[in-house]
Amino acid sequence: MAGWLFTGLALGVVVLLFVLQVLRPLLLPLLLAAAIAVVIAPLADRLTARRMPRPAAAALCCLAVLVTAALCGVVLVVGLRGQLQSIGAALDVAWARAEQLARDLGMAAEQAGDLRQTFSEALPTLVTQLLSGLAGGVAALVELVVGLALGLYLVFFMLKDTGLMTSATVRFLPVPADVGREAVVRAAGIIRRYFLGMTLIALMNTVLIVGAALILGVPALGVIALATFLGAYIPYAGAFVSGAFTVLIALGSGGVSTALWMLLVVLLANGTLQNLLAPFVFGAALRIHPMVVLLVTVLAGILAGLAGVMLAVPVTALALDLARLIKKHDLRERDDHHRLDDQRHDDQRHGDQRHGDQRQDEPVTPEGRTR
Q: Given a cut of 90, is residue 93 above it in pLDDT?
């Protein structure tokens, strides 16, 4: 029975990942909203416990999320903008050093000048391609903003109608009501522990990268720390963006050598160490084996891309926990049945014994029969 249950859960996870790949534009805002709502639900509960109306508590939590996201974006943009001139100057210095290196290797000054002219002529084409990519990026940004607005709208109603949605989820699950309620409570705990694991990884990356930036004399340490910490919550893409951000600031402040050292540290922190530690961190936080974490992440990345990578570990943890809960419920029901059968047999045995005692206590007639 347990083997068939595990097979069904595994097939369900694969089907779910396929559906996520097909309906990703609609499901990602919903899933993000659900995750945010689960994480900040204790805050809304505390506000409600202090006699604040539930809609007001939900609106205040949504406002806090919106303000936090806006402040993070402003800090990142201002921090990078303050280094743009330094980055341009560092690129000019890097090009001059490259020309000097070419001369040291035996290239004539005219050839080095021709190389620079070729690069200058190719620059407009590169800029055109970048602008076309920027247009696509703007479209993606608009889609992101719309998705975030939809997600914030969903967060509000998930926080406002938590009890109603919990009851609907319990009715939807193909398990008894008491098991469904326990499954929902445990699922919320799993999601919170998953984000706790992500926070631990983000802290590790932030400490390593900010420490290296401090040693190399890179400015804007607060901005780098914020970019690295927030980027760790988005697998791969977040690490790439925050790493590029950090390397650009290092290039603008210390030149090419500083940028190369910073790039090495970023690759080490966001690549090797994170991939080595993530299975153990998530395995400990979600109580699943690190090898399972690694395998489901790779499989989900192949089947559903970035969305699969983001959702593979928590979905697997939820499925395994539900399987354990169902197995526990079946064992409890089996024990209850055995206990009832034993009690029934004991009652029947005691009843037969009492009946026999009553027959022995009855007076005997002269004919030898009991009355």
A: no
User: Which residues contact residue 152 at a Cβ distance below 8 angstroms, ignoring those fewer than 6 apart?
Assistant: 33, 62, 65, 66
Measure CA 117 to chain center: 48
In three-state secondary structure terms, 364 is: strand
Owning domain of residue 267: 176-328
- pTM for the model: 0.65
Please, what is the Cα angle at 261 between 256 and 264, to 5 degrees?
Answer: 125
Rg (CA), the chain: 32
DSSP line for 141-208:
HHHHHHHHHHHHHHHHHHHHTHHHHHHHHHHHSSS-HHHHHHHHHHHHHHHHHHHHHHHHHHHHHHHH
The answer to whether residue 32 is domain-embedded is: yes
pLDDT tens-digit series, residues 311-331: 778 888 888 887 888 887 776
- State the CB neighbour count (10 A cutoff) for residue 86: 17
Indicate whether 203 and 149 sit together in one domain. Answer: no
**Identity of the residue numbered 141:** L
